[in-house]
UniProtKB/TrEMBL annotation:
The gene is rsmG. InterPro entries: rRNA_ssu_MeTfrase_G, SAM-dependent_MTases_sf. This is Ribosomal RNA small subunit methyltransferase G. Keywords: Cytoplasm, Methyltransferase, rRNA processing, S-adenosyl-L-methionine, Transferase. Belongs to the methyltransferase superfamily. RNA methyltransferase RsmG family. Specifically methylates the N7 position of guanine in position 527 of 16S rRNA. It is an enzyme of class 2 (transferase). Pfam families: GidB. It comes from Rhizobium mesosinicum. The lineage of its organism: Bacteria, Pseudomonadati, Pseudomonadota, Alphaproteobacteria, Hyphomicrobiales. Its EC number is 2.1.1.170. It catalyses: guanosine(527) in 16S rRNA + S-adenosyl-L-methionine = N(7)-methylguanosine(527) in 16S rRNA + S-adenosyl-L-homocysteine.
């Protein structure tokens, strides 16, 4: 099996399929993603989330902000399982979604844990990380504000944010409060979408 050209082992493939089954079951009871996107979950959500690991495949410690239905945090945690290294801290304040995430992590054997706290309170529970991810959560300026406690003054840390076609306006807005280095990775799944890689974050105001 391949996702975006990434060769996926049989074990990882089985974990991803089990996650997809759990997701479909739970999504009937709680709102994990927009119902209109359920039909193409593998391309719209799983393959899209897998791009994070493709860009940064090192076994490192991640924080996934607003994990919701598990994209991309659970997908990253499943890929890390094959490496037997690395860890994903999933931050989700909604108790029902956090319960789903705990079930998904436990049943897939993914490498990570769920923190049912508000993002603003997460730095108390999670002191350090190497990388941060978020998908369909907030505009870039707000995402950077969320990530700042783990990134400002830490030149080796990176943040990876999925963004749609309006991302250039969001970058311009964010530059009003922050300076940062930026790499734009074209999405292999969504036309006109990107994954923004941010580093060397500093606050202006």
């Amino acid at each position: 099996m391949e996702l975006n050209g990434l060769r996926v082992s049989r074990e990882t493939q089985e974990r991803l399929r089990h996650f997809a089954e759990l997701f479909t079951k739970w999504a009937k009871a709680i709102n994990l993603v927009a119902p209109s996107t359920m039909g193409d979950m593998w391309s719209r959500h799983i393959a899209d989330s897998a791009q994070i690991f493709q860009i940064s495949p090192r076994p490192q410690t991640w924080i996934d902000l607003g994990s919701g239905g598990g994209f991309p945090g659970v997908i990253t945690a499943i890929f890390l399982t094959e490496q037997q290294q690395g860890w994903v801290h999933l931050v989700e304040s909604n108790n029902k979604k956090a319960a789903f995430l705990r079930t998904a992590m436990r049943e897939t054997g993914a490498r990570g844990e769920v923190h049912p706290v508000r993002i603003e309170d997460a730095p108390i529970a999670i002191a350090t990380c190497d990388a941060i991810s978020a998908r369909a959560l907030a505009d870039l300026d707000k995402l950077i504000e969320y990530a700042a406690p783990w990134m400002v003054g830490k030149e080796n840390n990176r943040a990876y944010f999925h963004k749609g076609r309006d991302y250039r306006r969001e970058i311009q807005k964010a530059h009003g409060r922050w300076t940062f280095d930026l790499l734009e990775h074209d999405s292999a799944v969504e036309r006109d979408s990107v994954i923004l890689e941010i580093s060397n974050l500093q606050r202006l105001v």
